[in-house]
Amino acid sequence: MSAASADLIHLVLGIFGVLIVASIIGYVLERRLSPDGSNAAIENLNARIKAWWVMVVLIGIAFVAGRAGVILLFAFCSFAALREFVTLINTKRADHWALAAAFFVALPVQYYLLWAEQYGIYSIFIPVYAFLFMPIIAVLRGDTERFLVRIAEVQWALMICVFCASHVPALLTLHIPGYEGRNVLLIAFLVIVVQLSDVLQYVWGKLFGKTKIAPRLSPSKTVEGFVGGVISASLIGAALWWVTPFTPLEAGLLAFVITLMGFFGGLVMSAIKRDRGVKDWGHLIEGHGGLIDRLDSVVFSAPIFFHLVRYWWSLS
């Protein structure tokens, strides 16, 4: 068994251990405090734990399938997230060609370029080529009403749901001396740290939260939850240094950066939901809302993490 496989197995066993403990705690709390389902916080917690079981199993299957499985999983996630995003934006019949190009040209091309490890192209394909050609496709329909708003929303959807999300599997394309064959662990590090930060911010906020940090955007977020969650997740990131090519201090600093990006990404996506008058992006995942509700932190942190890691080693 390779060192990468052994580390991945240890990491997966640790995750399953945490989920088992969380499931037991959730079960006990439900039996004691919410036997009739009247405690919304406990019911929400258990729904989240059940959803996490499903998500962890799916991600685990993708990891076992290797590079192809990871790329296909995130391509599907991008497709589903793009679909959720499009349902909330201002589109007209004249935008159908542009939307079709987003779903059936831009998305598959971006992930094909990832598969081919063409960094020079996939790093600019959407922010340059798609941004230029998308309005060209839309303007050919001749409808100028709210044209700038309509096309900007489609471009923003592509950036968030496809370009940013694709930087998670893009970690597989990095060539790090002495870390060959272990890049999937970087994906695990990113997802675990960012998602744990979300969970821990929720927990710290419920336990000690008093000061609202952005009441108009996300009433549940508090200063205490933010500080406690970010610090806790950064310490966990430092403790997971052994799955990365970094020292404990470097891993902790990277964890701190991506948890900050994840937090502000969540605020940005909350602002969009408030603007559209909805609570969640969708209902795909019980207890979590839509797929974007789970990806919002990851998609904002993934490009930053990818480039920090990439240029860290190119400059060292």
Topology overview:
Elements: H1 3-33, H2 40-65, H3 67-86, H4 96-115, H5 119-122, H6 125-139, H7 147-164, H8 184-208, H9 223-239, H10 248-276, H11 291-315
Helix pairs in contact: 1-2, 2-3, 3-4, 3-7, 4-6, 4-7, 6-7, 8-9, 8-10, 8-11, 9-10, 10-11
Quick structural gist:
The chain is mainly α. The protein is built from eleven helices and no strands. The two termini are about 30 Å apart.
Determine the N-to-C terminus distance. Answer: 30 Å
Instruction: Give the beta-strand count.
Output: 0
Shape: globular
Helices, by number, come to 11
Q: Return the domain count.
A: 1
Radius of gyration: 20 Å
Succession of helices and strands: HHHHHHHHHHH
Strand content: under 5%
Query: What's the main sheet like?
Result: none
Please, what is the average pLDDT? 86
| Helix share, percent | over 70%
- The low-confidence parts are none
Account of the 3D structure:
The protein is mainly alpha-helical and 316 residues long. It has one domain. The chain is built from 11 helices and no strands. Helix 8 runs antiparallel to helix 9. The protein is globular.
Features:
316 residues, mainly alpha, 11 helices, 73% helix
